[in-house]
Design goal:
The structure holds 2 protein chains of 2 kinds.
Chain A (H helix, E strand, L loop, with lengths): L1 E5 L3 H13 L3 E6 L4 H10 L3 E5 L9 H12 L4 E6 L5 H9 L4 E5 L6 H12 L3 E3 L1 H8 L13 H11 L4 H8 L3 H15 L7 H13 L1
Parallel strand pairs in A: 1-2, 1-3, 3-4, 4-5, 5-6
Helix pairs in contact in A: 4-10, 6-7, 7-9, 8-9
Chain B lengths: L2 H11 L6 E3 L5 E3 L1 H23 L4 H24 L5 H11 L11 H9 L3 H12 L8 H23 L31 H29 L2 H29 L1 H4 L3 H42 L3 H12 L5 E6 L4 E3 L5 E2 L6 E5 L5 E6 L8 H67 L6 H28 L2 H6 L1 H11 L4 E5 L6 H20 L6 E8 L2 E8 L11 H11 L4 E5 L6 E8 L2
Parallel strand pairs in B: 8-9
Antiparallel strand pairs in B: 1-2, 3-4, 3-7, 4-5, 6-7, 9-10, 10-12, 11-12
Classes of the chains: A alpha/beta, B alpha+beta.
Protein name (chain B): histidine kinase
InterPro entries (chain B): HATPase_C_sf (IPR036890), HATPase_dom (IPR003594), Sensor_HK_TwoCompSys (IPR050482), Sig_transdc_His_kin_sub3_dim/P (IPR011712)
GO molecular function, one term (chain B): protein dimerization activity
Chain lengths: 215, 602
């Protein structure tokens, strides 16, 4: 699997590339900016996924987000995994809602866990959606006045959280060590209690859940 | 007495600019000259009244006469006392003293009769002097000076010639006195009495001519005068009108005695009453400028509130009574004074006053009616008020400028610090974590299990450090605020809050400093709501209204927050004031807390 890395810290960039190579990824190119250079590299190498930091030179604000949108518009088949120093729900969730397919958002320090990073890259490359567990955690634990979330059982909340992270039913079943049918029941219950359309799948389901949690 | 002799005392007053001197105890005491003038006025009045009585004047006549003379002397003494630098007071006293000279013709003492007959019209010459010298106290033009000298000369020479031919026994109606048994006249030249009518007619005619010339001179001055000067000249006008009417009556009386006979007493009364009012009018005109100084205090209050150059000029014009006043404020870059329309303002001789700052640098230039230079104290007071207002304005602008620079610098510094943490420390920590993971991989299957445990401990330590670092960096300057603005930043804040927070924010961007101030205002308000107010829910709104960002945080807690006590709220007030904003804290006990910040945002 081919991945292009865009990270402005040389140290981190080299560290990430080495980790990915060790893990069996092919990294045809890596760069320290999110502008035309990155787009050129993507055009040249046509990677399966691009791993990039949200904050990139020159302004260190939203260069990564802009580049992500450009890459995904030009190469819909290329997955994009964004790294962020902070758990930000607004801008990233909005970006997700615009085009959730093959898009992921992870907290920066997750790169240290190669298993997690590799899994996320593979999922975005496959068109799935990845949302950092901390983002979901924050959304789930935003203090709010009484509402339908209170009616969920502990297990249903767990399932809701994994759905928000972009996990499929099978992944949820694996994670919670329960049967596929049970997961389907939990998912259906959650959707009913929250008043969401029950037939949503993959990234559309993620967006619906995140949108619900943000409201 | 020669004419220079008459003028000499005025010339000498130059050496004594103040009538009041300060003695060792620091008390003000009238000068000898002032006292002597007062005594002369009293003595002259007494002598005049005695002489009037000798000529058979009634009590009413004497009282009327005394009233006019002493009105001049009294008003003159007051004017002299209040405006020591101005010779108008002295001239008025002189008018009051000479007023009574003609009465001396009523006595049977030959020497006194001679003095009275000779100097009867001296007060008219003094009046000419007074009118032409008013309000500055000195005769400005060479022509007017010649006219004054000529008037005194006419009285000295013409009066003498007339007296030489004046036989009171023959010309019984030559004076305003019912002269029975006046004289004799020791100066009468034997055989000259038949010339009296001709000399008298010539004397009066020349007096008339002088009056007309003076009238013309004053009309000319009036036409060229500003409003301020016209106001000051008004008493002189009244004096001229009365003197003219008096002379007119005199002419009628002289030419057609039969016609004026029945109305004589009425005209005389009115004339005298009006005459008595003249010195008061002079005094009022003279002191009016002093009253203006009292208005300067009001000026300070008025311009202190809003020192806008246009309004400043208007206020100054009003206080100085000079609508044509121009105010030039010093423009450092151009090195000149400019008015509210940016037109250059230049100094013009006596008609301009420079106002410098307390450090000696130029502040402003007032170009005003030259007549105002006559009242240096008023100009000084106005200058002081102007200096106060402008320095106040300068300091305020400077304070605002400096505060704004400091706030911006602090804001930029926070942003830089946050980025440094992100680019430096955080990247290194993540890298360390990555390396540690490799170490951990390498230790798989290692016989010493404690090694892997240590690695796990270091890893959790590193993760904690990363988390703390994230919190610190976010607290210093939230990246979302820079990237997405106030609304999303407040929404993010609401998610992390310890209690339910509803956010309603207009989706728009503001100046970074304004956004940051608004953000930290809400942070502080939320902290207060969570920690002290025991609130159950908070609503936050950020709305833009007419150039102002209004950020309001309302909770349903116990209230009682005091911006004066809590250091958090006080710091907040300072922070908001630094961007020219206003903080309102409404927190009645038991009634929740409403924290409202109004931030100007262009």
């Amino acid at each position: 699997m081919r991945v292009i890395v865009a990270e402005d810290s040389v140290l981190l960039r080299q560290g990430i590339v080495r980790l990915l190579v060790d893990e069996g990824f092919e990294v045809p190119a890596a760069c320290g900016e999110a502008g035309p250079l990155l787009l050129g590299l993507v055009a040249e190498h046509r990677p399966d996924a691009v791993l990039l930091d949200i904050r990139m030179p020159p302004t260190h604000t939203d260069e990564g987000l802009v580049a992500a949108a450009q890459v995904r518009a030009a190469y819909p088949g290329t997955g994009v995994l964004l790294l962020s120093q902070y758990i930000e729900t607004t801008g990233t969730v909005r970006a997700l809602a615009d085009n959730p397919r093959g898009f992921g958002y992870l907290l920066k320090e997750r790169v240290a866990d190669i298993g997690e990073l590799a899994g996320a890259l593979k999922r975005v490359a496959a068109g799935e959606t990845v949302v950092d567990p901390l983002v979901v955690d924050r959304l789930l634990h935003t203090p709010r006045t009484a509402g339908p979330l209170d009616e969920l059982t502990a297990r249903e909340r767990e399932v809701l959280g994994l759905m928000a992270e972009g996990r499929s039913n099978e992944a949820i079943a694996r994670q919670l060590v329960i049967g596929g049918k049970t997961v389907e029941t939990h998912v259906r219950n959650v959707f009913t209690k929250l008043g969401l359309a029950a037939d949503l799948l993959d990234h559309r389901r993620v967006v619906a859940v995140l949108t619900y949690l943000r409201a | 007495m020669s004419v220079p002799g008459v003028l000499a005392p005025y010339a000498r007053t130059r050496a004594w600019p103040t009538v009041w001197r300060v003695d060792r105890q620091g008390k003000r005491a009238p000068s000898l000259r002032w006292g002597a003038a007062a005594a002369a006025a009293v003595a002259s009045g007494a002598a005049g009244s005695w002489a009037y009585a000798q000529a058979g004047g009634s009590g009413a006549d004497i009282a009327r006469d005394l009233a006019v003379g002493w009105a001049y002397a009294g008003a003159g003494l007051v004017a002299w006392w209040r405006r020591p630098g101005n010779r108008t007071g002295l001239l008025m006293v002189a008018e009051g003293v000479t007023w009574f000279l003609g009465n001396l013709q009523g006595t049977s003492v030959p020497a006194l009769f001679a003095v009275g007959a000779w100097w009867e019209a001296l007060n008219m010459a003094v009046l000419v002097h007074l009118v032409l010298a008013f309000p500055e106290g000195r005769v400005a033009s060479a022509f007017a000076r010649r006219l004054v000298v000529f008037s005194y000369g006419l009285v000295a020479v013409g009066g003498l010639l007339r007296t030489l031919a004046f036989d009171p026994g023959i010309s019984t109606d030559a004076t305003y006195l019912a002269c029975h048994g006046c004289g004799p006249n020791p100066l009468l030249v034997p055989g000259a009495a038949h010339l009296f009518d001709a000399v008298d007619a010539g004397y009066r005619a020349i007096g008339w001519a002088i009056t007309l010339v003076m009238l013309a001179a004053i009309v000319r001055r009036w036409r060229h005068a500003s409003v301020a000067r016209r106001r000051a000249l008004l008493p002189a006008w009244i004096a001229v009108a009365i003197a003219t009417s008096f002379l007119l009556w005199d002419l009628i009386h002289y030419a057609l005695p039969a016609l004026s006979g029945p109305a004589e007493s009425v005209v005389l009364l009115l004339s005298d009453l009006a005459q008595a009012a003249v010195p008061l009018a002079f005094l009022a005109g003279l002191l009016r400028m002093q009253l203006q100084r009292a208005e300067v205090g009001g000026l300070v209050i008025e311009v202190g509130a809003d020192p806008d150059p246009g309004r400043l000029r208007e206020a100054l014009a009003r206080v100085l009574g000079d609508p044509g006043l121009r105010l030039g404020l010093w423009q450092e870059e151009q090195g000149r004074y400019a008015d509210a329309e940016s037109l250059p303002v230049r100094a013009t001789g006596s008609g301009s006053t420079r106002v410098d700052s307390s450090r000696g640098t130029p502040l402003a230039l007032l170009v005003h009616d030259p007549v105002l230079a006559e009242d240096p104290e008023l100009l000084q007071a106005v200058g002081a008020a102007l200096r106060l207002a402008l320095e106040n304005l300068w300091l305020r602008n400077r304070a605002k400028e400096v505060t704004s620079r400091i706030v911006q610098a602090a804001e930029a510094e926070r942003g830089r610090l946050e980025r440094d943490l992100h680019d430096g420390a955080q990247a290194r920590l993540v890298f360390a974590l990555m390396s540690l993971r490799r170490v951990d991989q390498g230790l798989v299957g290692h016989p010493d299990l404690s090694l892997r445990r240590s690695v796990a401990e270091v890893e959790s330590s590193l993760k904690l450090a990363l988390e703390e670092l994230r919190g610190i960096a976010h607290g210093i300057h939230p990246a979302v605020l820079t990237r997405e603005g106030l609304g999303p930043a407040l929404a993010a804040l609401a998610q992390q809050a310890a209690l339910p927070v509803v956010v309603a924010a207009d989706p728009r961007r503001y100046d970074p400093v304004v956004e940051s101030t608004a953000y930290f205002t809400v942070c502080e308000a939320l902290a207060n709501a969570a920690k002290h107010a025991r609130a159950r829910a908070v609503s936050v709104s950020a709305r833009h209204s007419e150039g102002t960002l209004v950020v309001e945080t309302v909770d349903d807690g116990i209230g009682g927050a005091d911006s004066g006590r809590g250091s958090g709220l006080r710091g907040l007030a300072d922070r908001i004031a630094a961007v020219d904003g206003v903080l309102h804290v409404h927190s009645p006990a038991g009634g929740g807390t409403r924290i409202r910040a109004e931030l100007p945002c262009g």
